[in-house]
Design a protein that fits this description.
Chain lengths: ~240, ~475
């Protein structure tokens, strides 16, 4: 996160992580499609070759709160291919929140796990701890055959900490929910650390509702936040912490 | 021109990119010139700090004339200051009128949601404008109205609506150029950062490898030391065992019956075997630690080979194997350690006899050949890599042979082709490793080939020192 007190501007970095071809770029494309033109900049894709991300995709989103604070959100993807390890490490540096995009197919289970360990390792290299990183997990490609069952995912998600989303990214299904969930967790964590709401006279719920609105979302915020399977969206909020 | 390189986070999260990082100044000037040529309107591009980045288009004869008049020039300069300070509002545009009635438009230039500069277009004259504003005439009474009317008549007119459209089009074009520039800037920054990161990775790995390598070298040294010490400590009591069993066998401690003599003989033989093994270990560790001393001298090869045959004949006869010698008597002498060379050949012949079945044959050969120097491989090959005269010693057997895949490894210490505990042939696996090291210390090579029709052929090539090359 970067704060510019003079211009009352705050920049948040969100990273979409995951194995190769799990649909990270598709997520950004879907977000870009639904985003209000006033809020979203050009989706930038760095050097694609065979439709694969070489460095990253970057989707800039800008929202202005009622208090006059400009929140710039930069959404990055990482290149999933194993060989781009050093690039992934560079992109994940300074991330405020991570959405892990997993491929739902049973055959990809191993790749998902490997990529997740890779994320953990890369965060560690930057002195960050996965446990303290705002994190949501998306199971993408729900429309394909031979995917891990809803029931299996729900059962495991119920035991885990992270909110889990089911998605079909090219159709935009589950994409906004996942993004809003991630933003919610990330903002809560940043607020807990930097006391942003008080310093900037900021209303995070109103802000989230505004973001959802600009992403063409008709549902209310509570309903959106309930869209996750298992996990705890409140876990990082200071008021939810046990006294 | 060198520019400070911004980091990835600075570019994407922090202050953003500068105009001069995103677009080439010359190209920007060309773009402006094209615009000015096409629409007949001047255009200037300023960076975010108000520094001029590009400009094109002339103000024209009217302005030239007015600037020639002191008060008018003052009025024009005041208007210029005003236009310079004009800041586009949230719509990204602002308009102003100059002292002449000519119009200016200012457009914000943004990249990635941040202001990177301004475009100032003008002055242009709308068709409605027929005379200079009265204020200018008041400020500068010396204006020649007839001349101004003439000059004003010659000025190209532009509808305000059209002018704004042209200006917006210019800014949109510039926006796309800036976006491409931004993308290229990020890409090259990522390339640099990735390479730096990969380099750091490699450095880490290299450092780790170096540590591991140093450790292994130290372990290797300790192992050699250990072998040397143990061999020495074993040899001392063993010498006594052999010595006393010899004395017993000779009857010094009283006559023994047949059976007792047999037992003592076995103790002595096994003791000798053990001693040979320990000597081998000692040799190996000396060779490895580089403390083996060589007594090099001129060696006549044919007598050496004959001596080896003579020594091995009893063992060969015992096993029913024919021992042959094929030697070229014109061979020049070799410069080396006679004892060590004998050891090499004895080792190989002994080995050959061991792996050759009864009725087979083992033959020893010696001839002149040439060999390539190893020193030319890293440069100067044409000078150093010349073929040099050499002596080739061969030991051929008709035994079980060595599979090609094993041929490199048989020279490793303790390596056995058949390492199962039930293997037919005994041995420690030390012999060939000692052979290899002794040949190495003579700057020679040893290799294994197939013997025809069956068996193994060991080929040792030893260089002949220049001083001793035969005429």
């Amino acid at each position: 996160m970067q704060i510019d007190f003079v211009n009352r501007e705050l920049t948040i970095k969100l990273v979409y992580y995951g194995p190769a071809l799990s649909g990270k770029t598709s997520n950004l494309q879907a977000l870009h499609r639904v985003a209000d033109a006033s809020a979203s900049g050009r989706l930038m894709t760095l050097e694609t070759k065979d439709d694969r991300t070489l460095f990253f995709d970057l989707l800039p989103l800008t929202f202005r709160s009622q208090g006059g604070l400009a929140v710039r959100i930069k959404v990055f993807t990482v290149p999933g291919q194993v060989i781009h390890a050093s690039t992934r490490r560079l992109v994940v540096q300074g991330a405020d929140g991570v959405a892990f995009i997993a491929d739902s197919r049973v055959s990809e289970t191993e790749n998902n796990a490997e990529s997740f360990m890779d994320l953990k390792e890369n965060l560690k290299q930057h002195g960050m701890v996965l446990k303290q990183m705002p994190l949501v997990i998306q199971f993408n490609k729900r429309d394909l055959p031979e995917v891990r069952s809803d029931q299996e995912i729900a059962e495991l998600a119920g035991q885990g900490r992270e909110p889990v989303y089911l998605a079909v990214a090219p159709r935009g299904q589950g994409v906004v929910e996942c993004f809003v969930g991630l933003l919610h967790l990330t903002w809560s964590a940043l607020d807990a650390e930097h006391d942003l709401n008080r310093k900037f006279g900021f209303d995070s719920n109103a802000f989230l509702a505004q973001v959802a609105g600009k992403l063409g979302e008709k549902r209310g915020l509570p309903e959106l936040l309930r869209a996750s399977v298992g996990g705890a969206l409140e876990v990082l909020r200071p008021e939810a912490a046990p006294a | 021109m060198s520019m400070p390189v911004s980091s990835l986070d600075e570019l994407t999260l922090g202050k953003g990119a500068r105009l001069d990082e995103l677009v080439d100044r010359e190209a920007l000037t060309e773009l402006a010139r094209n615009f000015a040529d096409l629409h007949g309107v001047g255009i200037r591009v300023f960076d975010v700090h108000g520094r001029l980045a590009a400009e094109a288009g002339r103000e024209g004869p009217l302005y030239d004339y007015l600037r020639g008049l002191r008060a008018a020039r003052h009025e024009l300069e005041r208007a210029t200051q005003l236009i310079k300070s004009l800041d586009p509002d949230s719509s990204g545009e602002a308009e102003a009128e100059c002292a002449t009635g000519g119009r200016f438009a200012v457009f914000a230039v943004e990249n990635d949601g941040r202001r990177v500069g301004r475009v100032v277009m003008g002055p242009y004259f709308t068709p409605e404008l027929t005379a200079l504003p009265p204020a200018l005439h008041q400020a500068e009474p010396e204006i020649d109205r007839a001349k101004v009317a003439e000059l004003l008549g010659a000025v190209k007119r532009l509808d305000r609506h059209d002018a704004m459209r042209f200006g917006r089009y210019f800014v949109k074009t510039l926006d796309l150029i800036l976006f491409s520039g931004y993308r290229a800037l990020l890409t090259s920054n990522m390339h640099l950062a990735s390479v730096r990161e990969s380099y750091r990775d490699l450095e880490d790995k290299n450092a780790k490898l170096q540590i591991a390598y140093d450790r292994l070298k130290e372990l290797d040294r300790l192992k050699s030391n250990f072998l040397a010490t143990v061999s020495h400590e074993l040899r001392t009591p063993l010498t006594s065992i052999i010595g006393y069993s010899e004395m017993l066998a000779e009857g010094i401690a009283g006559e023994m019956n047949e059976e007792q003599r047999d037992f003592v003989q076995t103790i002595r033989e096994k003791g000798e075997q053990l001693l040979q093994l320990i000597k081998g270990l000692l040799d190996l560790s000396k060779l490895e630690s580089g403390t083996m001393s060589m007594r090099k001298q001129a060696v006549q090869v044919p007598p050496l080979l004959e001596d080896v045959i003579e020594t091995m004949t009893p063992s060969a006869k015992k096993k029913g194997i024919t021992l042959g010698l094929e030697v070229d008597h014109d061979m020049c002498e070799l410069y080396g350690d006679l004892e060590r060379l004998r050891q090499v050949l004895l080792n190989l012949v002994e080995n050959a006899l061991k792996f050759t079945p009864t009725g087979g044959c083992v033959s020893l050969g010696g001839r002149m050949t040439t060999m390539e120097s190893k020193t030319g491989a890293d440069g100067g090959l044409v000078l150093l890599g010349a073929r040099r005269p050499a002596i080739e010693l061969t030991v051929a057997d008709s035994g079980i042979g060595i599979p090609p895949a094993e041929r490199e490894r048989v020279f490793d210490a303790f390596y056995q082709v058949d390492s199962s505990s039930t293997r037919e042939q005994g041995g420690t696996g030390l012999g060939l490793s000692i052979v290899k090291r002794l040949v190495d210390s003579h700057d020679g090579t040893v290799r294994i080939e197939d013997n025809q029709p069956r068996g193994t052929l060991f080929v040792i090539t030893l260089p002949v020192k220049r001083a001793s090359i035969a005429p």
